[in-house]
């Protein structure tokens, strides 16, 4: 049983006045939680982990930034699986192998870049590949060979 779990109300022997008070209390608590949520959103939108360094919020903001990065990566991968990509500048949806945006003319960079956590990923579709692979198993893209 959590702190904010509500206790089921028995409505058998409750007077209308008590039931009305219970409804008003529930509405007030719901409004309070909404205000707290909005305060949290406002704080998150106006601060980052660097600004919150040394505060109790630092780890939470780092987690939020990590989740945002994972969300962007997953959205890119979803489009790539469909053979599409999005222009970083204007948001136009394009064919995956486009070199330039046909709306704003922006040169399109590789969608996925290797990281320390995942050094072997296809730059076109984001699929992980085994060491020594020549072609991506996700999209067939020719892979760049790692320097020895």
Automatic annotation (TrEMBL):
<dbReference type="Pfam" id="PF12773">
    <property type="entry name" value="DZR"/>
</dbReference>
<feature type="coiled-coil region">
    <location>
        <begin position="18"/>
        <end position="77"/>
    </location>
</feature>
<protein>
    <submittedName>
        <fullName>Double zinc ribbon</fullName>
    </submittedName>
</protein>
<keyword id="KW-0175">Coiled coil</keyword>
<dbReference type="InterPro" id="IPR025874">
    <property type="entry name" value="DZR"/>
</dbReference>
<feature type="domain" description="DZANK-type">
    <location>
        <begin position="87"/>
        <end position="140"/>
    </location>
</feature>
């Amino acid at each position: 049983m959590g702190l904010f779990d509500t206790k089921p109300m028995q409505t058998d022997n409750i007077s209308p006045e008590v039931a009305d008070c219970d409804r008003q209390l529930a509405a007030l608590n719901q409004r309070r939680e909404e205000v707290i949520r909005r305060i949290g959103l406002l704080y998150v939108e106006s601060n980052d982990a660097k600004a919150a360094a040394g505060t109790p919020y630092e780890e939470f903001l780092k987690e939020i930034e990590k989740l945002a990065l994972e969300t962007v990566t997953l959205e890119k991968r979803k489009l790539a699986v469909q053979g599409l990509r999005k222009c970083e500048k204007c948001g136009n949806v394009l064919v995956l192998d486009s070199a330039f945006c046909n709306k704003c003319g922006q040169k399109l960079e590789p969608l996925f870049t290797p990281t320390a956590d995942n050094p072997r990923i296809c730059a076109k579709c984001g699929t992980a590949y085994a060491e020594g692979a020549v072609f991506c198993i996700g999209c067939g893209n020719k892979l760049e060979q790692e320097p020895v």
